[in-house]
Amino acid sequence: MGSQTRSTPGDFPRSLADVATDMDILQALSDYEQAALSALQDATSATDLEQVRIEFLGKKQGRLKDLQTLLGKVSAEDRPAIGKRFNAVKDGVTTALEARQQELAKPKRLASAIDVTVPGTSPRLGKIHPLTQTFAEFKDLMARFGFEVVDGPELEDERHNFEALNIPDDHPARDPLENFYLSAACLGNGEPTLLRSQTSTVQIRVMEGRQPPIRIVSVGRVYRPDTIDATHSCMFHQMEGLMVGPDVTMAGLKTVLRLFASAYLGGDVHVRFRPSFFPFTEPSVEVDVWWRDRWLELGGAGMVDPNVLQAVGYDPEQVSGFAFGLGIERFCMMRHGITDIRRFYENDVRFLEQF
Ligand code: DAH
After folding, report:
1. Is the CA virtual torsion 46, 47, 53, 56 positive or negative?
2. In what order do the strands lie in the sheet with 320-327?
3. For the chain, which domains are there?
4. Strand partners, 217
5. Contact between 343 and 326 (Cβ < 8 Å)
6. I need a labelling partner for 150 at 20 to 30 A (CA). Which of 41, 181, 203, 238 fits?
7. Which long-range contacts (CB under 8 A, 24 or more apart) does 266-275 make?
């Protein structure tokens, strides 16, 4: 506060003990008034102001109290006039205090806090996560091939994650060590029992709810208790595709995957199909693409197993289907030259800023 500019008690105007005559008292009142008003003006915060109030208007002690004591010494003849002056000074200082209190409580005008002459800097905008960009691109490409984009739940029951997909009870893929099962309290009666280990669950959910023809893709998270390293994570993303209708063939599957790979990776890519096995497809294939001088594994695919069509109430004599499941991280890593899958989940801005 501005105590530097204010008179200290020592020079106010001189010691009150010296005040003897009525004239002296009038002078002391004027000095008090002047010092109080300038202290109020110098106060720049509510805390400052409170200190000034205590010093000049304090009820128990303070300068006004001292002056009041002096009033007792005033001659009977001057008492009414000096008393009146005392009250006027007191009221004046009180009013000035209140005015200053209100002034300091007012918010400062913003315009005065901003220096409009300082040159601007461009804002640092966020980036869309590379995986999110890839999801959008995959969905967009597949939508252009006529595939509807659908979603499915990440918490699943065993029917959708295994049974309806022709994965029997004793299949190693159902091992508790291979899956994130929920605690016993959540088990049974079609309630969710695990974090889905594959997006193939969405095939079942879609087929249960509608009749062919079906042409869908679904992009989402899957969970597996893998040991985390540069190429494995216990959560990653897949794109599932399913097409069912009267004349769906393996040739159609190959065409769709070839078109997809060349649209995403660019150019006339060479796609290869290797015989494989999945419980829910027959025949099953593993799909690779030749890219930058090596074979890149795209994922699994095949013709939907008749048992799966039956499990959802379709007649395998009337309709056939193909399905595929692609790991998304791997695509994104290849395309951008990312060598460690963990980078995707660390949220390090130095990594994220590059996309
Ligand atoms: N669900 C399989 C997995 O996670 C991938 C897969 C293979 C999906 C063949 C399919 C398919 O739709 O037909 O390993």
Report:
1. negative
2. 148-149, 214-223, 235-245, 320-327, 294-304, 281-291, 270-278
3. 9-105 (no CATH), 130-352 (3.30.930.10)
4. 149, 241
5. no
6. 181
7. 271/298, 273/301
Going from the Cα of 19 to the center of ligand 1, the distance in angstroms, rounded, reads 102
Ramachandran quadrant class, 84 (left: phi over 0; alpha: psi -120 to 50; beta: rest): alpha
* Site residues for ligand 1, CB cut-off 6 Å: 198, 200, 240, 278, 281, 299-302, 323-325
Instruction: Determine contact, residues 61/32, Cβ cutoff 8 Å.
Output: no
**Is residue 187 predicted with pLDDT exceeding 70?**
no
CB 206 within 8 A of CB 166: no
Look up residue 28 and give its two tokens: 């002391």
| Half-sphere exposure at residue 192, Cβ-oriented, CA atoms within 13 angstroms | 12
The mean of the pLDDT values for the chain is 89
User: Residue type at 320?
Assistant: S
What's the gap in Å between 14 CA and the centre of ligand 1? 97
Q: Note the pLDDT tens digit of each residue in 85-115.
A: 999 999 999 999 999 989 888 876 666 677 8
- The one-character DSSP state at 186 is G
Closest ligand 1 atom, residue 326 Cα: 5
The neighbour count for residue 33, using CB atoms within 10 Å, is: 18
- The token duo for 75 is 């001659």
- For the stretch 140-152, pLDDT in tens is 999 999 999 999 9
Residue 25 forms beta bridges with which residues?
none
Nearest ligand 1 atom to alpha carbon 198? 4
Within 10 A of 2 (CB to CB), how many other CB atoms are there? 14
User: Residue 18 pLDDT > 60, yes or no?
Assistant: no
